Amino acid sequence: MAVSDRVFGLVIVGGGPGGLASLLAAHKMGHLEDLLSAGVAVVEMADHLGAGSIGRYAINSDSGGRTFVDCLDGNHPSELTELRAHPLTRKLAAAGDGPVALADAGRFLSLVGEAVERMMRSHPASAVLTRHEALCAHQINDGWQLETRDLETGAVRKIKARHLIVASGAHQPLQRMASEQVGARSLSERCGDRLLQSGDVLTAAGLARVQGMLTGKAEPRVAIIGGSTSAAAVAHALLNRLPQVSFGTDGVTLLHRRPLRIYYPDRQSALAESYAEWTEEDVCQISGRVFRFAGFRLDSRELIMQARRIGDRPPEPRLRLHHLRQDDDEAGRIIDAADVVIAALGYRPRAMPLFDHSGAAIELFSHTGPQAPMVDGHCRLLDASGTPLPHIFGIGLAAGFVPRGRLGGEASFRGQANGLWLWQHDVGALIVNAVLEDAQPPQPKPDVMLSAVQAFFKAALPLPAPIG
Ligand SMILES: Cc1cc2nc3c(=O)[nH]c(=O)nc-3n(C[C@H](O)[C@H](O)[C@H](O)COP(=O)(O)OP(=O)(O)OC[C@H]3O[C@@H](n4cnc5c(N)ncnc54)[C@H](O)[C@@H]3O)c2cc1C
Fold it and tell me: Which residue from 206, 312, 313, 366 lies 20 to 30 Å from 372 (Cα-Cα)?
């Protein structure tokens, strides 16, 4: 039957790491077959599923190697469990809780995508539409109608879905730099050509561009604006991956608003390093981890610990930390003196236009403010009033999901949980359960995902030795 004549149980828009996460969660839960039988279609612009954009970054991961490969586990042999023996899987697994190159993570996710693609293509009820762009979706009785364009032929197709997942990734809007004020002027106006975005800088081409802008300067200076993982990753990359640039004291300044928190695997190791700026609100009550989501990890963690002189790390005089205040003249001076200014102001979800039953555009909650999430605590897309839309979920970078309750995390956490592992476990499981419960009456079943999560934390390896 042609794709456009069928009603799929689930259509996933975006076949990157976020898009595949629910399928991988279903595999781990032992429900992938049930899900595929309900009819699943993935619509992806690229040639293949899996990689998304993670592999384009020329830096190391901020999650341990084993968090990437954990998605291959399952109770029954499958295309995915077979990948456990692949040399790349072994390489990532061998890193344990240590970092891996994101280029390797991207290659690994391509392998995972190929395996999922084979499983889906061999399943009569499912379909993979690569080189297809999702254009928009209209609400219909009992679900959604998605409009897609074949990027080779230009043909436009309509696909009906009972449930839709929006997993089309995120971007760094230029608008954000225009609206960020430093003194009386916007950041983009004040910095002109010196201003770059963190996502562009963290690629091989981006780092080469920054190197070109700084080569030959006697005292190169860079200002990074932001206190996120990306901001610290940029600082680490500049200091360690630009061989032709020698930064002097305070050569790189990180201007941040939020406090720079440090992740610890447990309370004892934090206290052993006299790190005491946390309360029980900052501890994940499931795993016992301190600043499980808000804390810097791996390369970024070591760098920020050096700069903050935590845990007897050797100093890093090339990095200066500047805590931004209201009417901060010093911040203006740092930015004006910089040869390059890098904005690490976060990502926003890239959602396609949605229309209601009457054909009117649906404004999303994520459009109501620069930090407003796209989804609620059940991964459901929210309209502008904050009401969940029926049968449509969001997952992936900047979707805005904040874990709570049995999903763990520290109660004080306010940001976005952007880790793949979480999406492939509890977050993906939330969506799988909602879709399957709708397809068939709920039946009592063992909480497979909870035991998988508990096993993961039990097997936690010690953190790698500090770098530097
Ligand atoms: C610098 C950086 C470092 C990171 N490091 C880590 C890390 O170490 N560990 C970790 O767990 N996470 C990390 N992340 C977070 C996250 O895992 C990655 O950003 C990941 O790529 C997000 O996956 P995604 O599917 O949400 O988005 P993407 O990877 O961007 O994938 C989106 C997919 O949707 C497709 N698409 C987009 N629009 C459409 C459309 N209209 N129709 C059809 N297809 C469409 C795209 O082609 C793409 O394949 C990092 C993020 C960044 C920015």
Answer: 206
Residues 419 and 376 grouped into a single domain:
yes
Q: Whose CA is nearest to atom 25 of ligand 1?
A: 18
Mutate to test the pocket of ligand 1, among 53, 164, 379 (most ligand atoms within 8 A of CB): 53
The residues, any chain, with a CB within 8 Å of residue 304's CB and separated by 6 or more, are 232, 260, 262, 296, 321
Do residues 24 and 122 share a domain?
Answer: yes
| Residue 463 located in a structural domain | no
Residues with Cβ within 8 Å of residue 145, at least 6 apart in sequence = 137, 138, 158, 159, 160, 161
Q: Is residue 212 part of a domain?
A: yes
pLDDT along the chain (468 residues), means of 10: 84 98 97 95 98 98 96 94 98 97 98 98 96 98 96 97 98 90 87 97 98 96 96 98 96 96 97 97 95 96 97 96 92 97 96 97 96 95 98 97 88 87 94 90 55 58 29
CA of 378 from ligand 1 middle (Å) equals 20
Residue 103, φ and ψ in degrees, nearest 5: -60, -40
Co-location of 332 and 358 in the same domain: no
Q: Which domain holds residue 185?
A: 174-260+296-343
d(CA 62, CA 190): 32
Q: Which of 418, 425, 426 should be mutated for ligand 1, with most atoms under 8 A from CB?
A: 418
311 and 360 in a single domain? The answer is no
Ligand 1 atom at minimum distance from 421 CA = 11
Largest Cα–Cα distance of the chain, in whole Å? 70
Of 135, 168, 375, the residue with max ligand 1 atoms within 8 A of its CB, to mutate for a pocket test, comes to 168
Cα(81)–Cα(111) distance, rounded to whole angstroms?
A: 12
Nearest residue to 324 via CA among 300, 345, 309: 345
Is 443 found in the same domain as 362? Answer: yes
- CA–CA distance, 31 with 433 (Å, rounded to integer): 9
